[in-house]
Amino acid sequence: MARTHAREEIVGSSRELAAVVGPVTSFAYPHGYHSRRVRQEVRRAGLGSACAVAGGVASASDDPYAIPRIVVRAGTSAEALLKMLDVARRPPRPRPLRRTAWRSLRRAGIEPFVERWSGTARAGASR
Question: Is the pTM of this model over 0.70?
Answer without folding.
Answer: no
